[in-house]
Every structure is written in structure tokens, then in C-alpha cells.
Amino acid sequence: MPRLSLAMITKNEARCLAHCLESVRGLVDEVVVVDTGSSDDTVAIAERSGARVGRFAWCDDFSAARNESLRLCTGDWVLVLDADEAVDALDHGKIRRALDSEGTSGHRAPQGYLLTSRNYLVDPAGRIFDQQAVPNRSPYQEGAQFPFYVDGPVFRLFRRFPDLRFEGRIHERADPYLVRRRLPIAVLDAVLHHYGKLEPAAEQAKKTYYLDLAERDAADRPGDADCQFFVMTQADLLGLWDKAIKAGSAVMRLQPQHVPYAVLITVARAHQELGHHREALTLLLKVLKAEPGHPMAVQRLLASLYALGRAEEARPHLDRARAAHPQDPLPWLLLGELEERCGRLPEARVALQGAVERSPGEPGLRQALIQLDLRLGLEAQAAADALEALRVLPDQGAGHWHALAAGYLLKCGHVQPGRAVLDLGLRNFPEHVGLVRLAAALKGSS
Q: Could you tell me the residue range of the domain that residue 172 belongs to?
């Protein structure tokens, strides 16, 4: 049976390293951890786990550190993880079976695999490249406590070739080695659960440094579209719109036949931030011509059409988005915004209800529906929607849902159910002004 090595690089990862290592217990045959200068208990945790620990002086080059971890591996295959990642037990068998693959008739066995990186988020508006966050309905125990995620492919599992090396100071990659040698790469339905995006302060602190590394790579390899792509993404994260446009335009120039949607959408966003809405529309319509109904492209398109006073032109794109992604709440939410902007509030409510039906556990959608009820003067409907929201999300709403529902019930003479909702709200939100006032009024009337 092939042996599998885990290869990691670390620096001050004591808070999460033990969880990562525990998640691959029974999956990997050896653990290699190369530390790049930790001042916390990272090295001690790795040593207690039985890892082979190496030390590497940081030199502003992620590939250099990764390559040192490969040098220490002895397995037939290598799995690459970061300390803020984990592998759920559900996928252990899939990964082990992939290593035993002998290929099918007429096809060579894969020498590397693309896995899924699942980036957990708490904000439904979160995005990574051109992918919007989706509700977490997966069967995994890993990450089950987080409401949203964004998936993306990553090359992290490959046969250990003696001369294979990572490339790039940042966003380092090993797959070019296989691509140049025309060695087969397959897609494996296994997930790497990534928790790093849940710490925005840590993410923010890295952005300027990562842009510097990306720009140094691009200067060394001016004809490499991937280097320009990484400059674009880091500039986008920092709000450096002119720089994002320049780098994204370089990607389009270097690979005109295969421009990723993420490039078109990112450059369009930069143009929007600078007020260049016609330029943004041109790029977004290219995405929508290739993939009608692309949710994020439609969302961006609406922003520019609104700015140009052409809101109604968005309607057919929203129809295509709803047809192409029937379970995605975003096109319904966007339709609701369009209908309200056009003064069609009842139609806006129908659309917003459609968004809630597709993501019933999203409190933001529930709140938006209740607020629209109130703008429509539908007091009873708002109270009913607040009660339904509390049934699904009993500890959400910050007390507003409890106050709205309890106040309406008490106003209509339904004292017992009104009191029950009020008591529940006070237990969860004892400082909520509206709930406190309702309780005082109820006490004064008794």
C-alpha cells in the first residue's frame, strides 16, 4: 500500500495545529512539519504528535519553505496542509483509495489530484475570487458550526517525485511540474476544511506583505499570467483599484483565449469603485455571454446599471440567474432589490420570500423580509414573519423579532402567547429597550 506523507510549514500556529494533526490521524503515514520561526508552542505540539520537525529560516518565499518540507518527506505520496486546515474522517477513505488507483483502460493513473478547499465564513456577503458564499448544508462534522463557505480547487495531493518543486514566492504551486511533463491530474471529491478566513484581523495584517511578494514574482516573470493574477487579487483586497486593473488587464493580454471569470469580475469591480461603469459593463457582459446567469456577475451588473439609470436592463439577466441557479437565494434577493427600486413593493416581497425559502437559516434575509413588510404597512404579516423567523432561529434577531411579535400579539389581546414570546426575548436579550418597555407596560396593566 502506498505511503502518504503530510507536508506542512508553520509559524506561530499553536492555536490550531493540534486540531489539524488530529484530523489526519489514521490517514497519513508520516507527518513533516517545517517551522519558519515560531515563538509559541507550535514546535512542541508538532513534536508531541510524533511529527518529523525541521526548521527553516524564513526568506520571503513560501515555495522555498514548502520545498524544504518535501525534502524531508519519505512517502510515495504527499498531502499538503496548512495548520488552519483539517480533513474530515468522511474523506479519509476517498484519499487512500485515490493513492491505490491504477488508472482505467487506455488511461494512465493520476499522478496528482485537485481537492476542494472549503473556506468557512460567517458573512453571507463573503466572496473569494468570483465565488459567492453559499449556505453550509454539507454532511461534514468539520466546519458544521459555520453558516457559509466558498469552495475552490487546490492542488494538494501528488506523487512524491524527487525533483518536484513548488514555484512562486506566494500562492505557491506544485502542479506546473506535472503539467510540463504531461502527467495526468484528476479531480478528487475530497474537502480540505479551511478556517483561516474566519480571522479577518489576521488576514488583513498579511495583505500588504502578500502584495509585495506577488509584485516581486511578477517582476521576475513578467510574461507569467499567474503572477499578474496574484497581483490583481492582492491589490483588490487592499482596494488598490488602479493596480488591480493594470494587473488584471495584463492577464487578459497574456492569455486572451482563456481569461478566468474571476479576472473579468475583479477588474469590473475595480472600474466600478472608480466610477467607470461603462467599462465595468463591457467586462461583465463578457462573463454573462459565456455563462448566462452567473450570480456574482449579475450582482455586479446591477450596480453599474443602477448607476447609469438603466435598471430595467437587469431583469432578463436575473431571470437567467434564477433559472441557472434555482436553489441560490442571491438572484431572488437581487430581484427584490430591483423591484423595490422600481417602486413595485408587493413584487419585491414575493422575490424576497423566494430568497428566504432558498436559505431559511439566513437571519439577514429574514430581517430584510420583515423590514419590507413594515414598509408595506403589513403589521400583521411582519409579526407573522418575525414569529416564523424565531421558530427557525430562536436566538437571532437581536431582540427586535421578539419585540415585534410580542407587541403585536399583546396589542391584539393574545396575552398568553405574547407573554411567552416576550419572556423568551428577555431571556436572550435582557437589555433590549423595546422588550423592557413591553414588560413594564404589561406589568403596569396587570
A: 4-198
Strand-pairing partners, residue 4, are 77
Task: Spell out the alpha helix ranges (H) of 221-276.
Answer: 225-238, 241-254, 261-273
Single-letter amino acid code for the residue at 116: T
pLDDT per position as a tens digit, 353-390:
999 999 898 899 999 999 999 999 999 999 999 999 99
> Which CATH number does the domain housing residue 309 bear?
1.25.40.10
CA angle 307, 353, 423 (to 5 degrees): 115
Measure the CA–CA gap between 95 and 433, rounded to whole angstroms: 54
Q: How many CA atoms lie within 13 A of 219 on its CB side?
A: 7
Segments of 308-441 assigned E as strands: none
The helices-and-strands tally (H runs, E runs) of the chain is 19, 11
Per-residue b/e over 74-95, b at no fewer than 16 CB within 10 Å? Answer: ebebbbbbbbbbbbbeebbeeb
**Cα torsion angle, 15, 189, 31, 206, sign:** negative
- Which stretch of DSSP H or E encloses residue 53? strand 52-55
* Whether residue 137 sits in one domain with residue 65: yes
For every residue of 25-43, DSSP letters joined together read TTT-SEEEEEES--SSSHH
Tally of domains in the chain: 4
Q: Both 422 and 303 in a single domain?
A: no
Residues 316-331: tens digit of each pLDDT:
999 999 999 998 888 9
Phi-psi sector, 11: left (phi>0), alpha (psi -120 to 50), beta: beta
